[in-house]
Amino acid sequence: MLSEFENIERSSGAEKAADLRKALHFLLRRQFVFAGDPRTGTVYNILMDGRFRDVVDGFFDSCGYRVHRDPEAQWAGIVAMDEDVPLPRMKLDETIVMLVLAANWQQEVNVGAVEDRAVVVATLNDLFDRYREMAQHGGGGAISAARFRDILREAAQRSLVEIGDFDDEQQDCEIRIRPMIKLISGGDALQRLERYVRSEEARFPQPAGDEA
Predict the structure, then answer these.
(1) In whole angstroms, what is the distance from residue 83 CA to residue 61 CA?
(2) Which one, out of 16, 25, 120, 171, has a CA that is 20 to 30 A from the CA of 165?
(3) What's the pTM?
(4) Helix 145-157 vs helix 124-138: angle between axes, to the nearest 10 degrees?
(5) In terms of DSSP bridges, do strands 174-177 and 120-123 run parallel, antiparallel, or are they unpaired?
(6) What is residue 159's DSSP assignment?
(7) How far apart are alpha carbons 37 and 136 in whole angstroms?
(8) What is the pLDDT of residues 97-151, one digit of tens each?
C-alpha cells in the first residue's frame, strides 16, 4: 500500500495524497460520510473519485472492510466483511435502537415518504414511542429516554442520523434517518424486531388475566 500512496503523490500531488489519507482516517473513525454534512466535501469527493477507488478499496479490504458507495444518495462507508474483524460489538440496547431506526426508515421508503438522498424524517418522540410500544409488548427491560437519546447521538457521530435542535417546549426534536442505516441493521430490520419481541414474550410471559 505504501508504494500506491507514493504513486498517487507523484501523479496527483502531495495535497491529493494528504486528502486521501484524511478520507481513510475519517471512515475508520466515523464509518460513513454523507455529502450533506459540513466539512465533508473533500472526504466524500476523494472516496468517489475513480482515480483513487482501487487504492481506497484495497486499503479497506486489507483491513477486513468492504467499501459501499451510493452516488445517487451521496454517501459512502465501510462495513466489516465478517465477524473476525475486531470491531466494537454493539450492546443489545444499541442494536435494538438501530433496528427501530431501520424499520422506520424502510416503512417510510415503502410508501414513498422520503426526502432527497433517501432521507426519512422522524421525531425523537415518535421513535421512542415506537420502541416503548415494542418493549411493553415484549415484557422485557426498557431503555430509558435518556439512554435512547444517547444512542441516537452515537449514531449521529457515525453519520447514520442527523439530530435537529431540541425544542424545550415540545420536548422533542427532528431525527433525519439516512439510508446507510440499512447496512447496519440488515435488510430485515422489521422481522428482526418482531423476532426479538417474540423472544422477550417467551422470557417474560404475561400473567393470566393481564392485558397484552
Answers:
(1) 14
(2) 25
(3) 0.84
(4) 120
(5) antiparallel
(6) T
(7) 36
(8) 998 999 899 999 999 999 999 999 999 999 999 888 877 765 555 889 999 999 9
